[in-house]
Amino acid sequence: MDKKIFIFLPDGVGLRNFAFTKFKDIGENKGYNITYWNNTPFSIEKELDFQEIRIDNQTIHPLTTIFTRARKRTELNFFDKKFNETVYNTYNFPQSYRGLKNAFKSTVVNVLVFFGSNERGIKFIRKQVKKLERKTSKYAYCKKQLTEHKPDFVFCTNQRPTQAIAPIVAAQDLGIPTATFVFSWDNLPKATTLVETDYYFVWSEHMKKELLQYCPYVKSEDVFVTGTPQFESHFDRNLLQTKEAFFAEYELDLNKRYICFSGDDIVTSPLDQYYLEDLAVAVLELNKEGYNLGIIYRKCPVDFTNRYDSILEKYKDVIVSIDPLWRPVGTLWNEIMPTKEDFALQSNICEHTEFVANIASSMVFDFVAHNKSCLFFDYEQPQLTKGIRDIGQNYKYIHFRSMPGKNAVLWAFDKKTLTANVKDIIDKNQSSVKEGKEWFEIIVGKKPTEASEKIWNVVDEILN
User: Fold this and answer.
1) Domain locations in the chain as residue ranges
2) Ramachandran quadrant class, 371 (left: phi over 0; alpha: psi -120 to 50; beta: rest)
3) What is the CATH code for 4-60+136-227+448-463?
4) Nearest 5°: phi and psi at 101?
5) What's the CA gap between 310 and 317, in Å, rounded?
6) Which of 182-196, 220-234, 332-346, 404-418 has the lowest average pLDDT?
């Protein structure tokens, strides 16, 4: 009888890697019976015709949010002390004290953080979260589903959401082996590992080392380096259109060379629109010198602001906006779902533009997969005032220390020299591709096209 695997989607971020790739086909070819255990508003059965079991109970314990927020803060405090740093706490967001409810929660968090920023305190909070979630109706609901369907393995596609805790604890209490995938390259130093499973799947040896460093309760033999399906589409030549077809579809000028500006969310880059304007001004200056350049603006899929609108209108002669093909199935950031079609769109933008410019974005890896450079902006805008976050903070984060050298990207350190920066890249006097590929290998691993296959090979190993 085929072994039954539950692919657990606690939120929408796992769809990209595990529903819209060849991941399911590979597993089925190995003889697995695959069911999506679906906690998202997206209907896998209706949209993709995949077998699914829906988790309709979304109840978490009222105190879980307090304890998980405290867990993140105590861990970041502890990391600062343990590793003699001050950077870890910059991953924190300010707490809200608006209204009695928020004030109460934030005060309790502060008390837990004050007393719990040590190994013993963190261990207590971790145990408390599981204890609280075992008391919820969601835990009982998920336990019943698991008892009824009897999966041989539960694979969680994202280690971050509080919504994942009760289902995973229920599986473990029933003796079902569980694993989680660490879904992003910056997650581990940020103390976002809320889901504790029997096994962990990570992108690279670098990420394995981080997991063992930040989660000392995890054993080395339970961590598997598999790569990530996230970048597999960039190596699939079948997704690429000809330049002529792509330009025709999006009404681009075949005589122009385009630069991609990939937008950031408002937290990472609150003044992002002004960097887009700076790039547009640089392009206009170069066009006066006889260049024929344009900009493709690809917005951040979870940015719902209108902050770029006036810039897009003002520079409509040089900027073309091509939105990601994501769609909302709810109102939260993690309910904005990617689509299969966006894989192809993103690959074609990477393939048919000269380079990408942004603030601290992982799009550096998407572009280097197409042998293209990335330009990071690293200067302040005059609009920066008290209370607005300086983008320079991004580059101080731990995950940027994984760069093999400063030339893994190109840098714009001054608005006044941006035109010269762009000109150098267009004229091929500057490139970050060589060191960028080294960085890609450190973060993503050496065989980016084999990740889905490797994950299933590890599942074989665990179950057999």
Assistant:
1) 4-60+136-227+448-463, 64-131, 235-444
2) left
3) 3.40.50.2000
4) -65, -50
5) 13
6) 332-346
pLDDT for residue 329 = 66
Distance separating alpha carbons of residues 417 and 27, to the nearest angstrom: 51
3-state secondary structure of 319: strand
Q: Which two tokens stand for residue 255?
A: 């005589």
Over residues 286-305, mean pLDDT: 94
0.85 surpassed by pTM:
yes
Ramachandran area for residue 41 (φ above 0: left; ψ -120 to 50: alpha; else beta)? alpha
Both structure tokens of 291? 């260049």
Nearest 10 degrees: Cα torsion 198, 460, 231, 408: 70
10 and 167 Cβ atoms separated by less than 8 Å: yes
Contact between residue 321 and residue 262 where contact means Cβ atoms under 8 Å apart = no
The domain 235-444 is placed in CATH, from the list 3.10.20.30, 3.40.605.10, 3.40.50.720, 3.40.50.2000, at 3.40.50.2000
Q: Say what the alpha-carbon torsion angle 322, 327, 333, 334 is, to the nearest 10 degrees.
A: -130
Q: Which two tokens stand for residue 268?
A: 């990472």
C-alpha torsion angle, residues 262, 263, 265, 267 (rounded to 10): 100
Domain pair 4-60+136-227+448-463 / 235-444, same fold: yes
pLDDT at 337: 73
**Which run of H or E residues covers position 402?**
none
pLDDT per position as a tens digit, 105-151: 999 999 999 999 999 999 999 999 999 999 999 999 999 999 999 99
